[in-house]
């Protein structure tokens, strides 16, 4: 411990004694570590933002689809009931019939996209009901003319958020029916607004699939696609079980006619893509660290040259090759550690500033901070190795001649 204390004191003495040179040497390490911390925090915040935004947009659902070119089988209402009985813990199963038309309120008439489904279509999006309620199974079974829309759509159509109970006229392919608003979904998130920016306005309308079929001539007894809703952590497993159940129920084994996909799978793929992007940015940051490490090596070589006589004296009075090498390695490690600590502070500050400005959560893990500090030390050891070996291998008589 005494020897290491002496090495530490010697390293601090050299660092302080060459303040300006030390500062310039540390600058590359400071910038590199700060960039690493900021990039990791930005990547974590971006991943969290995109994942949460997608969950808000799409909810947690799985899609079960039939390829009509490979089978004449169709899903039925009996299949829906059987799936809900087979998988009692899921949130529900629903057909989804999509259509487009016009919707007229007291204030304005706009284009609309229409989704017809069962009561479990509530879970199709992450933004829940903030006024009124979603339509019920009884309303689905009795083909009631009720609908749900975004709270923004209510303001567009009526000039107020208090639209529950009001009536709208919906027109699809020349047929018009009057529907009563029973519920309003919350505002869509920033990602949705970004995607829709510059596009024509479409109100988002949801209604019982039975009502959509009865009023606008859609098939409501046979379907080629079903949506299964469940929690994120069990969604993939539930979709897989549903796929096996329907494959057996319709005797589709070996036909590849039924395909299944879940938002959980999409989330995994998205995380993988974001991981690649984050790794690339991290690699760019590490390059700046390597440049900083080369600067450390150059300065250490200069230091070895300046202290040649000191090295010769130490070796002549018995200092071992290992002791000389450890001394210079300690100086390099301490130099880069100090740069790393300053870089961590600046990196955290930069991460807070950037993430706050963009609107991301600031996610800085202890692992990334500890890893950055450790990496800065390793940079010092790696790039200090050659100067340390050069100093350690000097012959005392040669060193004292200079």
Using brief descriptors, characterize the structure shown.
402 residues; four-stranded antiparallel sheet; alpha+beta; six-stranded mixed barrel; elongated
Task: Give a verbal description of the structure.
The protein has 402 residues and is an alpha+beta fold. It has two domains: 2-53 and 269-401, no CATH class; 68-256, no CATH class. The chain has 13 helices and 13 strands. It has helices spanning 2-17, 19-58, 77-86, 137-141, 151-158, 190-196, 209-216, 232-249, 263-306, 308-316, 321-358, 366-392, 396-401, and strands spanning 61-66, 75-76, 92-95, 97-104, 109-117, 129-132, 146-150, 167-172, 175-185, 202-208, 222-223, 225-229, 258-262. The strands form three sheets. The protein has a six-stranded mixed β-barrel with strand order 4-5-10-7-9-8. A four-stranded antiparallel β-sheet has the order 3-12-1-13. A two-stranded antiparallel ribbon has the order 2-11. It is elongated. It starts with a helix and ends with a helix. The model has no long low-confidence stretch (mean pLDDT 81).
Structural class: alpha+beta
Instruction: Give, in spatial order, the strands making up the sheet with the most strands.
Output: 4-5-10-7-9-8
Low-confidence stretches: none
Give the radius of gyration.
33 Å
- Count of helix runs: 13
pLDDT averaged residue by residue: 81
- DSSP strand count: 13
Shape type? elongated
Our measurement of the CA-to-CA distance between the termini, rounded to an integer number of angstroms, reads 33 Å
Number of domains: 2
| Element string (H = helix, E = strand) | HHEEHEEEEHEHEEHEHEEHEHHHHH
> What composes the largest sheet?
6 strands, mixed, barrel
Share of helix among residues?
A: 55-70%
Strand content: 15-25%
